[in-house]
Amino acid sequence: MAATKSPQGILFVVSAPSGAGKTSLVRALLEGDADLQLSVSYTTRARRSGEIDGQHYHFVDQDTFEQMVAADAFVEYARVFGNAYGTAAATLRETLDGGQDLLLEIDWQGARQVRQRFPESVSVFIVPPSLSALDARLRGRGQDSDAVIRERMDKARDELSHWSEYQYLVVNDRFDQALSELRSIVTAERLRTAQQAARLREPLRSMLES
C-alpha cells in the first residue's frame, strides 16, 4: 500500500555570517532535493543583476514593507545593512500545512523570531573555518569596498556569537563535505518517528493488523 504524504511540512532555518557560503550551499541542497522548497522573503534591497522578482526575493519599496509590518504580515523581519527583510506568515503556514518542506535562509534575528512562532522548526548555523578565511571569501567576491568588508567582518563576529541558539552547526571548510552534512540533517529530520508515522500511517496500520 502506498505511503501517505506528511500532513505537515518541516521548516528548516539556515543562517550564517555573510561570506560563509550559505547561499551556495542552500542552492546546491535545493537543486538536489525536489521535496524541499525555498521560502521567498520580502526585501527593500535593490535587485542585483540576474535576480528575479518572486524567485529570489519579493522586491518591495520601504512604504510597502512598513505597511506589511503594521499589518503583522510577517512571521519574522529584520533590518540588515540598511535594508529590510521579512517572511510572510500566511504563505509560510499555508505551505507547511500543505505538507511541503520549506527552507528559510535568514539571519539570527529572523531565526529567533521564527523559533518563537514555530518551535518545531529545525535550525542550522553555517560557519566559516576561520575569520581569515571569511575575510578572503568576502574580498574574493569583488563586490564590496574595503569599508563595506570591514563592516561585514564586524557584523560577522556578532553573528557568530549566536551559534549556540541553533540545533545544528556546520563548518563550511570543504564545500562538498558541508553540503553532505546539510543533506544529512534534512534526511535525519524526515526520518524522525513523528514524520515517518505520518507518511507510513497505512502501511504501519496494515502490518500491525495482519
TrEMBL record:
Q: Which family does it belong to?
A: Belongs to the guanylate kinase family.
Q: Mainly localized where?
A: cytoplasm
Compartments where located: Cytoplasm
- HAMAP family for this protein: Guanylate_kinase (MF_00328)
Entries under InterPro entries matching the protein: GK/Ca_channel_bsu, Guanylate_kin-like_dom, Guanylate_kinase, Guanylate_kinase_CS, P-loop_NTPase
The identity of this protein, by name, is Guanylate kinase
Give me the residues that bind ATP, please: A16, P17, S18, G19, A20, G21, K22, T23
Please report the organism this UniProt entry assigns to the protein.
Halochromatium glycolicum
Ranges for domain Guanylate kinase-like: 9-187
Q: Name one GO molecular function term.
A: GMP kinase activity
What EC number(s) does the entry state? 2.7.4.8
EC class of this enzyme? transferase
One annotated Gene Ontology cellular component of this protein: cytosol
